[in-house]
Amino acid sequence: MGSLRTIRFGLKRYLKTVTGFDIINDEGFNEANEVYSAKCVQLKKEGLAKVQHKPPMANADLKKLYESAVFNTNNPKTLLNKVFFEIMLCFCCRGRQNLRQLKKSHFAVLVDASGKKLVTKVVDELTKNHRENDEAEQGGMMYATEGPFCPVASFEKYLQHLNPQNEFLFQRPKKNTTADSDVWYANMVVGERYLGDMMKNRSKQAGLSQQNTNHSIRATAVTILDKSGFEARHIISVSGHRSESSIRSYSKTDEATKKRISETLTSATTGTSGSDFPAMIYDPQQITEPALVATS
Known about the structure:
two-stranded antiparallel ribbon; mainly alpha; hpI Integrase, Chain A; 2 domains; single chain
């Protein structure tokens, strides 16, 4: 419905400039506007009135994902799962076609001034928000972490077992291979459909509480950064959004926050701890009706 509204206002501006007619406010266009309004109602009934962004992943689901066999780094399929997820999370990649076209040469493993390893993106893919002439510096980094879930260690292991004859990053796992094999992946890029359904299928396999999509990973990244106190201008430098207003739709009030809000409000009325406000408890017997004063 947003596209329909945009076209309508575009026509209004053009026709008013050229002819002086206002197709939205002039009485001569009442019938056309009634048809437009009826169409908007129909679109709402069909659930097409507003784009519904996928919600971010719950913290419990993130934990479950990492603790499940879905992210096992000793298997070519599940190692691909983990690397894919972490690249999506840290670099906020988007689009099936863009994902399929990512190459090994687009990323580099570096060491910063403090001696810590990181993965950085050295080539930006084209997206709907950033085209050939976009010179804005953007993109995230993926730093090494302590423990068995280190994303940089997984990325390096993945690169080590990729097929050297194929330049693309996401390669199809070989059917028959062993853990001690040098090459775990075939000389064949993973298809767009497989990549596009990656998170949906992993959600089912790991038994997560909701069916997530690849866009859910992007929403999760923005939400985590927002709740961690990062300024919007820093978030969009990683997410690739064109403006700060674009990320507001991701900043939802989660269930835990709503619970704290409810507890704060109810504690004010019941006198329980957790609120600085005094309990608002009234004695009905102390409430009197206002006296009626006769007027002449």
